[in-house]
Design goal:
Rossmann fold; Ser/Thr_deHydtase_PyrdxlP-BS; threonine deaminase activity; pyridoxal phosphate; L-serine ammonia-lyase activity
Length: 333
């Protein structure tokens, strides 16, 4: 675990998202999303020796938190712009979220993905009415192709995290946590590009500056962790991880980097074996399926539980979109 001291932003690095932006986002999207419940788990509290609250965002309509940010961005577009079409690149949760958000807004969505994307996600995205464009190569190739197409055709490209409106949408989770849980000492959040933790952390710290925002990532995909340690966004060689939703390098100009420097208090890296153990623990204690990215936050608490005993600990279960066979294999290994 690495502890990061909060860094004040300079005048040229002003935070681009405010509490008011998140509250406006909540008003904009609340009739389209599901307010997922926050639950104190008696069994997990006994297991860890602390008060453990689960935020069940895996029950969101698209199967992950991504719907919030996608909706806030898409519903903010001028109608004449949205009607031209929506573009994104994603092999999974972001693509599902954009497809559903575009459906709600009555816009046409095109999702670029790599040919290696699993058929479950591909079919789910298509079932929501989005057009699929399969690209040779990896996710980066799909993103590069999507951006070039959006620019050429003058269409709106929806970033998964590098956009103030997307971050504000993810921050609406913080509003619900503030409403549902009286006192939070620590909040464990899985981190990829940093959009989710930026939005939630900004909102929660505005009301409780003493709260600890704890970022959790796989050791196999530690790009944001290493970048924060280096003080700049760097490219990191990553390897395969069950938490594919948090994998991948961070855009070099991402606004989430400065936000994360300000917001994150601790950073925990977890092994693949710990991710599997976390998936198995939630299945055993709660009888629910979570994806690898959600398990990363649980694994963070598991690994460092002795440091958070007798505290009010919140764990964000950020998604459930995992192929059943992959889930079964993970919890049995």
């Amino acid at each position: 675990m690495i502890t990061l001291n909060p860094i004040s932003l300079t005048s040229t690095q002003k935070i681009m998202i405010t509490v008011s932006d998140i509250e406006v986002a909540h008003t904009r999207i609340k009739s389209f999303i599901r307010k997922t419940h926050s639950e104190k788990s008696i069994l997990l509290s006994q297991h860890f020796g602390s008060s453990v609250y689960l935020k069940h965002e895996q029950l969101q309509k698209s199967g992950s938190f991504k719907l919030r940010g996608a909706l806030n961005k898409i519903l903010s577009l001028d109608k004449s712009i949205g009607e031209r079409g929506i573009i994104c690149a994603s092999n999974g949760n972001h693509g599902l979220a954009v497809a559903l958000a575009a459906k709600y807004a009555h816009y046409k969505a095109t999702v670029f993905l790599s040919k290696t994307a699993n058929t479950f996600n591909t079919h789910a995205i298509q079932s929501l009415g989005a057009k699929i464009v399969a690209v040779d190569g990896n996710c980066l190739a799909a993103e590069t192709t999507a951006r070039a197409f959006a620019q050429k055709e003058n269409l709106s490209y929806i970033s998964p995290y590098n956009d103030p409106l997307v971050i504000a949408g993810q921050g609406t989770l913080g509003i619900e946590l503030n409403q549902d849980i009286k006192s939070i000492d620590n909040c464990f959040i899985s981190v990829g590009g940093g959009g989710l933790i930026s939005g939630i952390g900004l909102y929660l710290k505005a009301y409780n500056p003493d709260i600890n925002i704890i970022a959790c990532s796989p050791k196999n995909a530690p790009t944001l962790h290493h970048s924060l340690a280096q003080g700049k966004i760097i490219e990191v060689a990553e390897s395969e991880t069950l938490s594919d939703a948090t994998a991948g390098n961070v855009e070099h100009d991402s606004i989430t980097f400065e936000l994360c420097k300000k917001i994150i208090d601790d950073f925990i890296l977890v092994e693949e074996s710990e991710i599997k153990a976390a998936m198995r623990l939630i299945a055993a204690k709660k009888r629910i399926i979570i994806e690898g990215a959600a398990a990363v936050a649980v694994a963070g608490l598991m690994q460092q539980s002795k440091n958070y005993r007798d505290k009010n600990n919140v764990v964000i279960l950020c998604g459930r979109n995992i192929v059943l066979e992959k889930f079964c294999q993970a919890i049995q290994s």
